Amino acid sequence: MEFLALLYFIWILWALGFSLEYLIARLKWFKKNLFSKDPIIEKFVMRFGLGMAGMPVLLMILHQIRLPVLWWWVVLILVSIIPIFSLINAIRKKIKIDLMSLIPKKIDVAFILVVLFFIFHCVTMFTGAFTIPYLEDGDPYEHAAGAKMIAETGVGWISGMSLHHYLEPYPPFYDTFLGVLHQVHPESINWTLKFFNALFVSLSTLFAYFFFKRLTKHNWIGVLGALAITALPSFSSHFIFAQSYAMTIIFVALYCAVRLRDDKRWFIPLAITTASMTVVQPSTALVTTFLLGLYFLGVFLSRLAPVKKMIKDKVLLRLFFALLIGGILGFVIFWGPLMVIYSGGSIESGLWMGGENRKFLNFVDDYEVIYPKFQHFWYAPHMANTPPHSNKIDNPKGLGPYICITVFIGLLLSIGLLALSFFKKFKKKIFFEREVLIIALLWFFYGLYGVLGDYFPIRVLPNRFWATFGIGVALLCAIALFSILKISWSIKPKKGLFRTISVIVVIILLAGIIFVSAAKKYEVNTANWPQHKFRGNPYDPFDPNTELGVYLAIMNTFPKNTKIADACTDKEAILASDMIYESWNKELIMYEQPYSDTSRWGWNKHQMTENREKYGALWTNYYADTPNGLWSTLKKHGYEYLLFSFRCAELYGDNETNNRLAELVSSGLFVPVPPSNQAVIVMKLK
Asked: Which of 247, 418, 452, 529 could form a disulfide with 136 if both were Cys (CB 3.0 to 4.6 A apart)?
């Protein structure tokens, strides 16, 4: 089933990309296919990328229908109609397909190198994801709950209920897509999250190659840029959250923007991919769409001319209106309906944007402000818990010394080449277009401001800005390495000596990038990352006497998708352990929270305390109902086990919890069974 899920993933994205290309070619304004003159390899990879970047728009449209249509077969049918129709039409017209034309006529050494980078990226991310059996930190558990709900119900919302953080009013695309993929492989939500999130991150290597290649019109800059993206420790980790998807499809959106520069057919793909960027993840949407805006600004500045001429500049008009329509489309398919359905306070709460540290343009990483210093750029990161090398798992920081040196060289060369481009004497000798140099500088300083955001009053998640910063860093790295060789080849006196020196310098820098930065990226991603979901030492989580020990034992011994109830509201842990607690079942929610003013599961300790003070200690039916009533309710919904964990004592008190356990056991309806320990009691329903 795992291989089937991968095949499904590949097909639906390629088929969606093919369908978009087919429909665009049928419009009278465009007439030809997007990739009609492109190499076969680029055609396949970027058609797949176009499908990946277009999937958020498709799924959010299905989500807004407000019917249970988020099923794997619905998506499969929708994206397969046009490819199948095209195949039938070709057979009917007896169109001969030259299979030999699908084979590249010559060996593309550059792309072979990129494939090797992609393989390294995959090995790094997959090894890291599956090194540990649990999900790291806390966010992935909530994604597991959201994806499982969509996989089981085919919907991403329940009227009047706020189910968990990563469904509405938070943009639900990431959980929706993973939920649809999980339907194809329903045995393990744990595997679905780990595998596909790692694949999302790894695909950035391929898309980055074609983007950098198209942007600079130099094949080997595409290779060097892809290498830098792959090797950068700070460009995405295997941490499971929506940013992983967003930071990969940004390269597809930028690729569409570059293609639109020379070909009007890319207007619609750019609008669609821009819309997708706005609905994948809110903070990344703000950061990456601004990156697209800076691309437009770079093109604008490179083409400065009298106002009348600028107004008639087709390239600028195409870019401007494509980005504008993309933003409007994103508003129409998600943000607009969201504002109609939810109040402003609900949206702010759902996006975690309340309080002193979470304002729209003052959105910090956590309550401990971090002020990056030079050492945070210079040192390649690892997971040691001592500064300056300590790191964060959602987005590691650090570049490594050789990337820092290369970027500094690239920065100087870009500024120098840009200055020379304004002199007629040197303009024709500059081997980069002016807009490339301007864009590289804009992206670099924008990313630098972002990661240093804690020094400024306006900031948006400075720690997570490291991934966005990596795009400008990678471009400057590629410019530096390419320029060193290009300049040395153009100097006539002592040409041989300059060539030798330049080759040695480039080899040293490349070796440093690979054997320092890339090696550290592998190290930080394959370390035993801590978990913060369960009680116990987060850096030594395998003690069987901890909460995590019980959940790991359940995951490894109980049949998949066994129904297990948790008396103390930690439903995400059960779902992430490949078991089921129906957090979306209204009857069970109301049974668990009979005195709740708003139906919401996942109460925190403060909310529990408030309810205990308001309604008394036994405010939940897991404590208040009779043993027979509890047994009947759980049996009615097919539950086989009931858990009482250490957090029950935290929420309700030791005496109340011990008395309740004794009462349930004495009834004869609940029998303690392995893997119970001092932290969690597992009881089987007779």
From this structure: 529
